[in-house]
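Chapter summary example.
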Amino acid sequence: MLPSVLRCARPISTCPILSRPLAHFRPRMDPDPSRPVERAIRTKLANTLGPSHLEVHNESHMHAVPPGSESHFRVLVVSSRFEGLPLIQRHRLVNDALKEELSTCVHALAIQAKTPEQWGINPDLAKSPPCLGGSRGDHTVEEKLKAGRE
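The structure predicted for these 150 residues follows.
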């Protein structure tokens, strides 16, 4: 069984929010003011689900998007609100909290939703597989671009 679900809301090119270029990947617990989408995700999940543990990781740099994009995220939410709920309902709670972001600029969201007991047994964040979408997985992009110019 997969520990997360990806949800694509709309093409990356329609996202109106871009922040400064990424210097390097920094998984952080504290919000970074230069990343408004990440900050909004963190705030909404904290306010809606009252988590005992929350991690928000911008994984956009792992995908074929412009530098500084805030389009691909992985979240780990540990909340007692998940007690007794199946995984699909937990994910729906997260998706509902982030409805605005998912309908505008978040292209993909990987979710891990755990109860405090589950977190105590396995306090790990799953790793995302390498991106094979877009131009990263297509080794003929150069040829296609050249053909398009002719």
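To summarize the output: The chain has one domain: 12-149.
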